[in-house]
Amino acid sequence: MGCAALRRAGSMGLFVTLLAALDKVSTSQDGFLFRARPLPDRACWQAMRTTVLGFRHLILSQTSKMSLRKGSNVWIEDKERAWIPAEVVDVSETHAVVVTDAGKKIKTLRSKLLPRDPDADDAEHVGVGVDDMTKLTYLSEPGVLYNLARRYALNEIYTYTGSILIAVNPFAKLPHLYNVHMMEQYKGAQLGELSPHVFAVADSSFRAMVNEGRSQSILVSGESGAGKTETTKMIMRYLTYVGGRALGDYRTVERQVLESNPLLEAFGNAKTSRNDNSSRFGKFVEIQFNGTGKISGAAIRTYLLERSRVVQITDPERNYHCFYHLCASGKDAEKYKLGHPSSFHYLNQSKTYELNGVNSSHEYLNTRRAMDIVGISLDEQEAIFRILAAILHLGNIEFSPGKEHDSSTIKDQKSSFHLQMTADLFMCDADLLLATLCTRTMHTREGSIVITLDCTAALASRDTLAKTVYARLVEKINRSVGQDPNSRLQVGVLDIYGFESFETNSFEQFCINLANEKLQQHFNEHVFKGEQEEYTKEEINWSYIEFIDNQDVLDLIEKKPVGIIALLDEACMFPKSTHKTFATKIFQSFRAHPRLEKAKVTYRTDSFLDKNRDYIVVEHCNLLSSSKCSFLAGLFPSLPEDSSRSSYKFSSVASRFKQQLQALMETLKTTEPHYIRCVKPNSLNRPQIFENQSVLQQLRCGGVLEAVRISLAGYPTRRTYSEFVDRFGLLSLELTDGSYDEKILTERILKKIKLENFQLGRNKVFLRAGQIAILDSRRAEVLDNASKIIQSRFRTFIARKEFNLIRVTAITLQAYCRGCLSRSMYLFKKQEAAAVSIQKYARRWAHWKMWKACFLFQQYRSHVLSIQCAWRRKLARRELWKLKREANEAGALREAKNKLEKELEDLTWRLQLEKRLRVSNDEAKSVEISKLKKAMELLNVELDAAKLATDSECNKNAFLQSQLEFSKKEKDALESRLTKMEEMSKENAVLKSSVETLKKEKMELEQELLATRKDCNQTLEKLQEAESKCLQLQQNLQSFEEKLSNCEDENHVLRQKSICGSPTGSLSGFFRPFSEKYSGTLTVPNMDRKHLLDSPTASKILLSPRSLSPRSLSPRSISEPRRSHVTAERHQDNHEFLLRCIKEDLGFKDGKPVAACIIFKCLIHWHAFEAERTTIFDCIIAGINGVLKVIDTNLPYWLSNASALLCLLQRNLRANGLLSTPFRRSGGPSGLAGRMAQGVKSPLKHVGSEESVLLVEARYPAILFKQQLTACLEKTFGLIRDNMKKEISPLLSLCIQAPKATRAAAGKSSKSSGVVSQQSPTSHWDSIIKFLDSLLTHLRKNHVPSFFICKLITQVFSFINMQLFNSLLLRRECCTFSNGEYLKSGLAELERWIVNATDEVIHQKRKTSLEEIRQDLCPVLTVRQIYRISTMYWDDKYSTQSVSSEVVSQMKDILSKDSHIVSNSFLLDDDLSIPFSTDDISKAIPLQDPTDIELPSSLRDFPSAQFLIRQS
After folding, report:
1. Do 818 and 738 fall within a single domain?
2. In sequence order, what are the beta bridge partners of 286?
3. For the chain, does the N or the C end have fewer beta carbons within 10 angstroms?
4. Cβ contacts of residue 183 below 8 Å, gap of 6+?
5. Which pTM does this prediction carry?
6. Is 500 a catalytic residue?
7. Which residues define the annotated binding site for ATP?
8. Which residues make up the binding site for ATP (predicted)?
9. Position 1085 pLDDT exceeds 50
10. Does residue 571 have a pLDDT over 90?
């Protein structure tokens, strides 16, 4: 299987890196380099390709065995997308022509193609992938890559590769994946049972530690920005969840472990060019556990802190977060004389001071809070931040050349200020600090020699001091979490950087890659061991599988005395060594090493020597150890005497790191490892961007593909027998008749195909690389042949169907034509007959019309003649009347004529006379006219003068007219006033008479007013007193309301507590201080309390007539001591009787619980409800709770008794207004005031009910007893419900997934017809129905009210719904079509069990829009739940698509917009509430009369029960 190629391939990691194909050693201006072949951008990652040659060899062997043909689905390499899907369109012996998904034709070698699963297209279209890479049909690079891409597009960021978890950074918040409910789901679940998750790995490690008693380790790796830190925090959060204590104080070990994360991030993380929160050190957190699996401590080990970042950064990176947090701390920053980060040299080398979405001041407070929880005291916190501030001030100290040669001094006043601030913060002498920075002391035999340092050396000394102080500070903080030295079990979480290869690689990359080489070796061994365990578990024959061992690379680096680290340490010890001599020595030592040909990574050696030298400057240690700050002095213990001779003490960073790695590997070898590989999907740090090339390189370097390679070296394809028969049973249909089991059937199929080297395990078949391709090829041939036969038969069927259709059509057309002709002839004849008939009727009508016209004419003519005759008669009559009138007027005319003739003669004579007179008058007139003309002329002159005078007079007349009118108005007004005055004078006389009478009345009223004022003053005084009393009463009322609300809250808490534990200690302890607390306030106003408590109440008198007997009033009554003794004995007897009633099963009579009725009758008879103080209620409650604690208690019996007793109390007791506290708060102050007034007026009263039962006014203990009884009832209900859930959970776990169907017709009928074969429910569902039947029978046997039965069944079905729904969302193998059918059929059985309903068809048409899904199909589910189902569901029976990719994308957009809703988990929560109240019980349960209950014979001996015997 290509083992030789594997041995030559080299390690997954890298490393060979350092010795990269050394052709020669040369010098450049930038320093000395290991010269390697030139590489383009990110081409250094291509070095990893050479390490997977064996892997590629195995994969390509699949292609060589796969028979390529036209239409085959393959993968082809692409420069941009790494691999792209394609389809073969032409094949030759050595080449093949393929068409990519973009439509591009490519001709390539057959050996460069990899097979692609033809069923993957459907999965890709639906948008789902496999949750375990080992389930891929073809386990190859492109299959792994595209499976991750499909899952990442759906926010499924976790995927298994065997036992390895791959986590792809979503670069978005997914709160629904990490809430407490999700942790509860993965708690105790087997690895692989639910969807891949970091919680699953954490739980697997925790359970393995607890069950096997062996420590575990979880190794989290990946490049910067891949999400290692967040993954580590999630692991630690889950471990503290499952291993933490239920309750604890503020500083529990669990809190310390969790809060160590933000503390380590503040001091160990920084912004880099790739990641805003990059860990600049590796850490191994050991969470320690005690023998019971609870966290007892934690230990944190750090590796390779990037000390150089303290003093040197590049833009756009930042220094460690803690410096920026301190600068933004406000008052603390002012106290330490700090300002903006731009004012400090160690921070202003980069112009990036803030991070997006991060508030430095808030982070400072979070760091302070984490320190408090971890256990760092306030003094130590003060010291830590003083040291940080001192480092910042130290970086601002600058030097200038001194007076002497090669000496230095403080540059300016600003540097002096920072020097003084540094000394003050370090609590040391400023001059001594300056001397430590600018000089060195050498101790010789002759004495001490002080050597001055130049400016460059002084700056280097300053930076060395800053790095040393910060490194030791971080080490001290890491040791702050409390450790448990007695712990023997721990879960270690390793968060370390992955392989790094940049354009410029230095000493840090060298050490990081060394660590990854060692971890890679451990990883290879673990994966190989896992393969061996799998083979052993399945009991198959297997031989040794070779895998890559990179021990030679590790020897090249670590081996003494000629390893690279040894040579580096040797070069560091010699002062004259340079990077050039170091590189030359390496080249000479490893010229013939076989790894040189395969190295692809370039390292710069110009900084190797400086970074490897970790000199301990004695002056620095002496200075800080003498600090007055005890915390700082503790970081620098005194050095041994031999080290004081030299100012420098050399320490190798590489050697120390190698020792740390060795200790880490020894720790890991003692633990069981679990691997999580974090992948960074893109370099932009943005969501939903998947860069194939980058991810593929990370998979190669992270060991994922190495695990695949190891799997390919053995038996990479593993299928359960049922899966194998389902897929390949059609290759041998004659064997699938049901006579063989699946294993034998699998073996016969493989032998028929003539495959070799396969293995049959206990549950799986193991196939070599390439064999699955042969099977798929044969399966494709069978399907092709079957499709051809189906096509030919279908074409025949279509042709016959078309012929029959044409024939039927022709016959139908002919019949139609004949029918049309017959119908036309019939229509013609029908029309002819109709025409004849119409003509006949037309003639008849015309004749009748003519006759009618003649008749009408004759009639008309006769009418006209009659009218003419009448009209002529009328005219004749009118003419006759007119002639008669004229005859009457003729005589009068003659007389008038004669008279007129006479008058005419007179007029003629007068006319002549007038003519004569006129002539004479004319003459006189002419004379007169001449006179008049003259006079007229004179008059005209006078007229003109008169006109002028007239105009003036007119004006005067107008003025006078106006005055006249005004005078008239005044006159009228005066007349009106005069009339009024006359009236007023009359009234005045009347008023004068009335005034005298009023004066008399006034005197009388004044006297009455004085008396009324006196009464009013007295009334006001009384009113003020009443107002003050009213205000006081209102205040008392408000205080009563507040106390009542507190009482209700406490009662609610009490009822909830009673569900979880026994109320004997808790409830009685609660009510006792409650009664004591409110005994002084809950009293009736205006009443003597002593009298209220001591005197017999009215109810006692009514209910106990014997209290009025002469014996009770006799002076010879029993003495007080004797009476108290008798009372105590009687109470004891009562308690024993009640406990006996509670402990014995008294059964039922006519459906009524005997125990509840007897207890109620006893309490009524003993007047317990009216007592101010009594212990009988505590006795009853303690007895009931004691019975409930017994494991085999008949809980339904007590549910029935408790509910009956509570209903009797609810209906027969009347709560006092001051003492009653309803279970549900009512209206407001008005209702409370009304109850108070009622209580004040009649504190004790009997009211007759419809059933003529006396309602007893209960006292405060009775009210508390009713609340306690309610709590016991709720507790009993909760216990029954929880027991039902416990019993039904194992049955549900068997019903969640459909059992494997028989293989009798595999390949024949499983996917043939369109009729869906419904599988009847198995015995698992029958067992659930039997359980429900037995439960219902048991409840009815104990006469549990139907109200409680309905509530119990409702909550059980809600639990079934929650369990099944969550299983579908967490287990993809359950979210299938066939499993949905199975669950539907089982749920239909449950529905028929309830209402005997008929089954409904479950098939739904494909929904095309999100609104249809949300409104019609899934109105109750949230978008997140619908999205989860849509992405998890797959049709394993018909391979159909349920939801389109557009709808899935639409839901994804909605979720991304609503990501702020913490809204939101896609799982259902279990309903643990009590679904009823006391009022609901009283309304739902019918009234029960306890009077007809007889006392059982077993209780007749008790003296306390004698009254029950007499009543019966």
Report:
1. no
2. 299, 492
3. C
4. 199, 238, 241, 242
5. 0.58
6. yes
7. 222-229
8. 222-229
9. no
10. no
